[in-house]
Write a structure and sequence with these properties.
Length: 328
């Protein structure tokens, strides 16, 4: 319990608004709940949220200590009362999540609270499966990343061993990640391979594709197959042999078939034509094929997970339905 005395500068405020200012990490719905449960007392008694405070009032707060901390990137998860996650799979080791386009995966200089990782932390904290306040506590971590405006499956590790094993499996290509995208025009051939070299411009946060090796350029290989063609657009499935930054977007643009909605590698006039904001790209399917011991993740071997819906498929290819056999 912590006690506060209302001073002149705080007099006249509503109780709930004083609480929001004093404890910025405490989510508003949780603050209202604590007031209802009389865990916030004014002069030793329970009170209503809209009561006006007076000079000299004594407030007793029966609230967890962590909510009295000052906000930092490390404790931002506390402010999320109802984390929003689309969980495809969860066990005591990992989580598979369908990240929506527009959501950044990690906190950065622009967004600290509304990120995929922060929502995961809040979810596990509220389930009492994780707490950063425990000694030697492992912080939930992401095993793969997806661009802000790309949607799809992200793997999160709940334990240090799961993180180590999954990262090694990804490195050894013992799982397959399939993407769906909508590109302009018709691919020729309809099924094939895009090969090249990607050179990254750190200043512009953009990559450039070259057909020949260059100093600093990394090999990029993408397998693709066309699933449907309608109205000058192609629905394409991609299997990344290499996992480079912006690989799919840059390679298809280089091949003359940019993704619709792609503001960085696409064509502005075409994007306006189709009314697409954000690249039509989704990591929609994940398959596990372990060739070596997977320890605590062995139960995933041979399993496949697929998202339930991809908005641009139903929008641009309403008659197409992908097969969902072997999906668990």
């Amino acid at each position: 319990m912590k006690e506060f005395t209302i001073q002149k500068n705080d007099a006249g405020q509503r109780l709930d608004r004083w609480l929001a200012k004093t404890l910025p990490l405490l989510p508003a719905p949780l603050a209202q709940k604590y007031i209802r449960l009389k865990r916030v007392k004014v002069n030793g008694k329970g009170s209503k949220r809209d009561v006006r405070l007076n000079v000299g009032d004594q407030l007793q707060l029966y609230i967890n200590d962590e909510f009295f901390d000052r906000p930092t990137p490390e404790n931002a998860f506390l402010s999320l009362y109802q984390p929003k996650l689309n969980i495809l799979y969860e066990d005591d080791q990992i989580m598979l999540l369908d990240k929506r386009p527009g959501l950044v995966v990690h906190p950065d200089e622009h967004e600290r609270v509304n990120t995929l990782l922060t929502h995961i932390q809040a979810y596990l904290y509220q389930k009492k499966e994780w707490s950063p306040y425990k000694e030697n506590s492992f912080a939930p971590a992401l095993c793969n990343r997806i661009d802000r405006n790309t949607g799809g499956i992200v793997i999160a590790a709940k334990t240090a061993e799961a993180l180590r094993v999954m990262n090694q499996k990804i490195k050894d290509r013992e799982l397959n990640k399939y993407y769906l995208c909508v590109v302009q025009g018709r691919m020729s051939p309809p099924k094939g391979k895009l090969e090249g070299f990607l050179l990254k411009d750190e200043v512009k946060k953009q990559v450039y594709v070259t057909d020949r090796p260059q100093p600093g350029a990394k090999t990029a290989v993408t397998l693709y197959r066309t699933l449907a063609v309608e109205h000058g657009l192609s629905l394409v499935e991609c299997d990344l042999i290499t996992g480079r930054t912006h690989q799919i977007r840059a390679q298809f643009a280089h091949a003359g078939h940019p993704l619709i909605g792609d503001g960085k590698y696409g064509r502005e006039r075409e994007n306006k034509k189709y009314g697409r904001h954000g690249q039509a790209l989704y990591s929609y399917r994940l398959e596990f094929h372990f060739a070596t011991d997977a320890g605590p993740l062995a139960g995933l071997d041979g399993k496949c997970f697929q998202v339930e819906d991809v908005d641009f498929v139903s929008e641009y290819f309403p008659n197409y339905h992908w097969k969902e056999d072997e999906v668990h």
